[in-house]
Amino acid sequence: MSVYKVPQDVEAEDKLLGPFSFRQFVFLIIAVIGIAIAYGLSTILLPLAIIPVPMILFFGALALPLKKDQPMEVYLAAVISFMLKPKKASMAA
C-alpha cells in the first residue's frame, strides 16, 4: 500500500521573495521608489525630502509580513477604524 503526502496549507499565498507575497513585494517596491524620490529631492533641497515620507510609511507598513492570518491592509483598516470610532457608548433609551 502506498503512502501519499497531503499538502496541509493549500490556501496560503505563494511567497515571491523571502517572506513577501507578490502583493507585499509590490508594496515594498513602491516604498523603495519613494525612498529614491526622497533621496533625489534631498539633493535639490534637504527639506523637500519630507514630501514622500507619508508614502514611504504607508506602503512600507503594507509590505510588512506581520499578520499571517489576514492581509496587512485589512489589519490596518481595522486599526484605523477602531481609532476613528467614538470611545464613549451612547445611553440612548
From TrEMBL:
<keyword id="KW-0472">Membrane</keyword>
<dbReference type="Pfam" id="PF12666">
    <property type="entry name" value="PrgI"/>
</dbReference>
<keyword id="KW-1133">Transmembrane helix</keyword>
<protein>
    <submittedName>
        <fullName>PrgI family protein</fullName>
    </submittedName>
</protein>
<dbReference type="InterPro" id="IPR024414">
    <property type="entry name" value="Uncharacterised_PrgI"/>
</dbReference>
<feature type="transmembrane region" description="Helical">
    <location>
        <begin position="20"/>
        <end position="39"/>
    </location>
</feature>
<keyword id="KW-0812">Transmembrane</keyword>
<feature type="transmembrane region" description="Helical">
    <location>
        <begin position="45"/>
        <end position="66"/>
    </location>
</feature>
